[in-house]
Amino acid sequence: MRLDRLQAALGHTFARRELLRQALTHRSHGAQNNERLEFLGDSLLNCAVAALLFERFDGAREGELSRLRAKLVRQETLAEIAQALELGSHLALGEGEQRSGGQSRPSILADALEAVFAAVYLDAGFEQTSRMIARLYQPLLQQMQPGSANKDAKTALQELLQARRLALPHYVVRATRGEAHAQEFEVECSIPALAISTVGIGASRRAAEQVAAQRAVEQLPQ
């Protein structure tokens, strides 16, 4: 039943459910794990994202497209998508990884999501896999523009505020949760002049600040 909920979120019902189970099995859990699937999923993701960018930004140069792709396929982005899918709650982890908070570790989440892409490919082919990737990445694609791919969210927000001659945003850590080796930070980004306040959560203070900054960029008036 729990896998039914994940399949609904992915938009794909597996004919071979054992592929999904393997994709969700970390190497700490046993020999039959997701490492080989992760290898395949990484290549599938790069190909699908490259095609999406090529179609969306028909005037962009190769260097700009490469930077955009790097931003979309990096560990942090994959982990954010995995968190939105609640992938961590479905992972099969060894006892040590469970105790250390492996279900929320960005590297484990990112690898598992790539493995899921490979599982879909083996179950239904590349067309189904690319459609699923396109749907999961659509919100991120809508925010991207060539020429700004090398700027992180904090830098982009700072430049947008400076262009409007507004004060820089304030970042405040609102909460820190978890053990020292697997902490989760909650950071607030506020722009008083625009009455904007956003919250970001990440595995580090910097990661949480980036999430909060991106959300603030999305709320800036046009």
Description:
The chain has a three-stranded antiparallel sheet. It has helices at 2-10, 17-23, 35-56, 62-73, 75-84, 95-99, 106-124, 126-143, 153-163, 205-219, and strands spanning 170-177, 184-191, 196-202. A hairpin with a 4-residue loop joins strand 2 and strand 3. By secondary structure, the chain is mainly α. The chain is globular. The model has no long low-confidence stretch (mean pLDDT 88). The protein starts with a helix and ends with a helix. The protein is built from ten helices and three strands. The protein folds into two domains: 2-143, Ribonuclease III domain (Ribonuclease iii, N-terminal Endonuclease Domain, Chain A), CATH 1.10.1520; 153-219, Double Stranded RNA Binding Domain.
Characteristic terms for this protein:
222 residues; mainly alpha; Ribonuclease iii, N-terminal Endonuclease Domain, Chain A; Double Stranded RNA Binding Domain; 3-stranded antiparallel beta sheet; 10 helices; globular
- Give the CATH architecture of the largest domain: Orthogonal Bundle
What percent of the residues sit in helical stretches (DSSP H or I)? 55-70%
DSSP helical segment count = 10
Beta-strand fraction estimate = 5-15%
Per the CATH scheme, the topology name of the largest domain is Ribonuclease iii, N-terminal Endonuclease Domain, Chain A
- Round the Cα radius of gyration to an integer and report it: 19 Å
Mean pLDDT: 88
CATH superfamily of the largest domain: Ribonuclease III domain
> Sheet with the most strands?
3 strands, antiparallel
Low-pLDDT residue intervals, each spanning 5 or more residues: none
Structural class: mainly alpha
* Outline type: globular
Assembly state:
single chain
Strand adjacency order, main sheet? 1-2-3
Q: What count of structural domains? A: 2
Rounded to the nearest angstrom, the distance between the terminal CA atoms is: 44 Å
